[in-house]
What does this fold into?
Amino acid sequence: MTTQQWAATASDSARRGKWSARVAELNGELNALLSFDADARAPVAVSGDGPLFGVPFVVKDNIAVDGLPLTCGSRLLADLVSPYSATAVARLEQAGAWVAGKANLDEFGMGSSGQHSAFGPVRNPWDHRAVPGGSSSGSAAAVAAGMVPLALGSDTGGSVRQPASFCGVYGLKPTYGAVSRFGLVAYASSLDVVGIIADTPQLARAAFAAVRGADEWDQSSVTAAASQPAGMPSKVGVPRVALAGLDARVAEVLATAEHQLEESGCTVVDVELPALEHVAAAYYVIATAEASANLARYDGIRYGARVGDGGGPGEDAEKLVRATRSAGFGQEVKTRILTGTFVLRSGFQEQYYQRAQRVRTLVREEVERELRRCDLLLLPTYPVPPFTAGSTAGDGLDELQQKQADLFTGIANLTGHPALAFPVDSNGGRPIGMQLMGPAHSEEQLLAVVERLTERWPPPRPGSHIGEVA
Amino acid sequence: MSEVTHVGLEIHVQLLTESKVFCACRNSYGDEANSNVCPVCLGYPGILPALNEEAVTKAYQIASALGCTLSHSVGFERKNYFYPDLPKNYQISQYAAPLGSDGQFLYECDGQERRVRIREVHLEEDAGKMIHAGDLSLLDYNRAGTPLVEVVTQPDLRSGADAEQLLTAFRSLVRYIGVCDGNMEHGSLRADANISVSDTEDRLGAKVEVKNLNSFKFVRAAIGFEELRQAAELVAGREVVSETRLWNENRDVTKTMRVKETDSDYRYFGEPDLPPYPLAPAFFDEVAARAVELPLAKRRRLAAAHSLSDAQSAFVTAEPETARFFERCLTSGADGKAVANWLAADVQRLLRQRGETLGSSALSPERLVQLLSLVDRGEITGKIGKQVLQAILESDRDPAAIVEEDGLRPVTDAAALGQVLSEVLAEHPQVRAQLSGGDRKPVGFLIGKVMQRTAGQADPGAIRTLIEAEVAEEAGG
Amino acid sequence: MNAPGAALGEDELLTTAEMARLALSEEESAGLRDAIGQMLSYFDQMNAMDVSGVAPTTHAPVADGNGEGHSGTAPPPLRSDTARPSASRWARATEQELVARAGDSEDGFVTTPNVL
It folds into this structure.
């Protein structure tokens, strides 16, 4: 559906009713959305101001929307209603788009399977047995299923791009700082970015244009001049050596993407990224370390549910804090908080945290070196296709394997560069996406290239789809 | 065995800013509980710190006044520990690169210059306040996020008295710069003390930190207590335990503060929400432009220029308000020594009686200068001058008007004074006899009596002249 | 890879959990010890990389593709020192409404069981 078609649906209560019913039906299968309200914030007119006028979007539930819950997929914040809106949300609203609901996610953004939400797992619209990816699982599944054309997600180590690829949609991880993090619940602050998931690269571009730019409430945000896309890049690099051992189906789709780029006039060259091997380790050390501090504030004292507050003698504040946190966080979150606490401890910090920071420097230097040799880098988003949920048997991955598999996405978070995941092939039922990574603030260029590829090789659509509701 | 005591201070300075250090909530003492809070200073999910430029500027003003090496960018670390008054359960502080390092604090005490080395000056956020009430603890987050500068000295002090003197001088310094009100009762200025007693000069003993010192008196007392306690341990052949202790102001003792081992590992790491912010040359120009003459320099300059005594120069320069007042008197042409005399004695006494300060009182430098000049020109006596001073404070009028309206001009009229003198002499025939015998001793007594009878309005010079005339007449007659 | 849990002793796990204010049930702690131990062993593979003389990246990188800093990018200026109440900024909630969100409050104070 086009922007105008969405505006027409949004401003017509009868159409909204039909759309809403269909969303509810699909969501029963997918569990992509934690809340959906087709009426509350819908525009009354069929046309109005802003490049995104009338476009409904859903917001990953770790991004604040004034007056809506901000659960972060956690029991601990199940009842928290946000008293403010994230800058990215406010800017999309200023551009005419409107919030239709909050999307399910792996608790606090921690996970790459969509299976770690306190509010139940999210299913892949292409194949309900497959994971939708994570942690922006609900955002990607909702867009893939056509519930909404646009969603905000967050990407700390691939959390926008990996579910976008698993669900066959577009997922943009902007340059670190290009979009304000104000209102994004922090997982790992030096890696987190607010990302965009959309059903077309055009819509992703319009949404990015609306949200980008420095924000007085985020000191790590920057304003950069919008890059002018200069047609197709001449040289795209692929880190061939590092890709040995890639799943055969993913390798095949990578070859397809290379072929498409060459068909479009690019030269594909080999590049060296030896540090790629250490990306996932360095990424998890830094991410868990920062997370251990970021999640310390959830103590049940100022907001959120309290556990163990009988108020009687023998009670004390520390017990309350311990009981609240122990009951409130899920296993994966606890694993990461404990790992992060450990790697920062005196006596261990040098070995883990500080080493990871040095590895981060080397990774950045390698990427910057290769981006001087070629215009963009082409990488798989994930080394395997969407895997089967709830089992480590067959094509399932255990938690550690899932983490190790974050290397292709984690690299852009460690270096701060922008990357765009795009659908290439549906692999007979489970989509496989690739990603393009470019210099800082080259989002326009990435989107322009992918737009060209999409025009020529349109990606397919999943079985679970809302269809045309306009 | 003789023990050597080393004391270092960690001085916490709350900055006088309009808003908090990382959010736009009001930075204000004494407001209703939790009336200056927002999602940022309550540690809500998704919020980020937005650094207050004025807080940074004021912190650099302190570091600069202490002659520190100034950092060219300002970055922060997270100090991780759980406490209910700390909304994020980490404190944003500086660790790896404090904004100021390796400075010194020079001040004068008992006529001697003191120098204490400053290890570092860093900026951080204050925590909230907690009140314990039975089974409950009450939390007020108004103070959470107040900009706080921590000044860490080297262990260059030797005693509680030393520490108290340093703090007195330091309080004066921050008030001069205008970055802190120095109010210890309100906690605007607080200190922790590190005390180590060693049985040899060569090395420091175990470091004992004493927290919770919110008055100069407590600082002095707590250090004194620790000195004795630690020395006694050494004398008894025991080891002094390196620990944190709390001052108990009700019992005048320090007590071990239970700190879990797991809570003393702060797991510092760079605050990712505040990338090191490069400060432009214009920022440093602003810091330099705000520099003022510091108390020590001012004291030395004024003492030399106006031959002030140690006590006078100390008094005149201790408070920036007094110093400003003094200097405005000077620009109006007053005699510095005389102004210092008046300020340090009568003015101070009357203000204290009235519970006022120079700034809040009706006494302006212009009025004091006028008053002094009236006395100097002999238009009123010194004694009347004091009356006039009191009248200024009471009725907010100019000295000249008071003299006029209250009829305080000295009685110089010889006839009127002669009349009074005759009365006095008549009442004291033995004095007359002494004078007649050439004894001049009773002259002062007579002047005093005449003054008394004229309510201080008589001009003593005029009385003396009259007495001399009387004596001459007796001798001649 | 090391045997699961080899990298993390029981005591270390408990100490770490205490720092993080997490109480672990016995069955939970066995699983967490395995999971964290596996992660730590995995982290050890970084030891294969020579990082001597390499400066740590302590904050998110702000360099551009040429490693020379963003050209034409600017962080927001520092905040100017003006006080505004919570509800006059981006938040809709007043101070009182925020305090009311606490699990327990009394006379404007947020309350907790006694802090020892």
Q: What stands out?
A: Strands of chain C lie at 105-106, 109-113. The longest strand of chain C covers residues 109-113.
